[in-house]
Amino acid sequence: MNGKRFRLWDLPTRLFHWLLVLAMVAAVVSGQLGGNLIDWHGRIGLFVGGLLAFRLAWGVLGSTYSRFRQFFPTPASLKAYLRGEWRGEGHNPLAALSVFGLLGLLTVQVATGLFANDDITFTGPLFDLVDKGLSNRLTGLHHLLSNLLIALAVLHVAAIAYYGHFKKQQLLKPMITGWKEGEGEAARGGGIIALLVALALAAAVVYVASGAWLPAPPPPPPAAETPDW
User: Fold this and answer.
1) How far apart are CA 176 and CA 179, in angstroms?
2) Which of 54, 92, 190, 208 could form a disulfide with 62 if both were Cys (CB 3.0 to 4.6 A apart)?
3) What is the C-alpha separation between 192 and 222, in angstroms, rounded?
4) Which residue, among 143, 136, 135, has the nearest Cα to 109 in the 3D structure?
């Protein structure tokens, strides 16, 4: 043991990862149970939307291994990985496909939820921007994609377990501590200005998605007076 290690994942990336895990679990539970929890399901969806917006910005402005260009999978990199010839740190090309798949699917899931309804009391924050028929179709897609999202998340966890048990590659520990054992180039970039820009973008997305900017609905008409006879 030579004790060498290098910085792999920055703190914002790690916080995003674990907050997203917690939010996904909470969204699944609240969505399945429904009832009074459905309003919390909507709030969690807005939170996930903010996380995704942050990750989109951080994928451009963040530190080395958090940037999308660092691990974007190409046919050449995938072929090299499958042949055992790929060398690199961070997400390997196959894991990158899973990451982009999850991010893309979550984005669609959040977007459809903004216009959804449950035919009882809940409507998404942007429900008033579409007609009921389109809202019903988006609601159906939202329910359908939830099953695919759960399956992809389970596959993601299974892959981490496989790499840890069979290939002896610890993928979980660096996402907790930020450090990876061995020799490698330490992550650079992703300073405070980049963090503030990413947070501002996330806040703007949550504000727009919340529908707070929409005009208030007109008040209900006054009740008809009952004749006093």
Assistant:
1) 8
2) 190
3) 54
4) 143
Tokens 């973008």 belong to 201
> What is d(CA 157, CA 134) in angstroms, rounded to the nearest whole number?
34
Question: Residue 134 pLDDT > 70, yes or no?
Answer: yes
Is residue 77 within 8 Å of residue 161, measured between CB atoms? no
Q: Quick one: tokens of 66? A: 């958090």
Query: Element (H or E) spanning 179, and its range?
Result: strand 179-181
53 CB burial (10 A radius; 0-12, 13-18, 19+): buried
Place of tokens 């910005």: 57
For residue 146, which amino acid is it?
A: S
- 3-class SS at 63? strand
pTM of the model: 0.92
Helices of type H across the chain: 11-33, 38-61, 68-71, 75-82, 93-113, 132-165, 172-177, 192-210
Q: What is the mean pLDDT of the chain?
A: 93
In which band, very low, low, confident or very high, does the pLDDT at 126 lie, cut at 50, 70 and 90? very high
Nearest to 171 by CA among 95, 97, 102, 106: 95
Q: How confident is the model at residue 1 (pLDDT cuts 50, 70, 90)?
A: very low
First to last CA, the chain: 96
CB 155 within 8 A of CB 98: yes
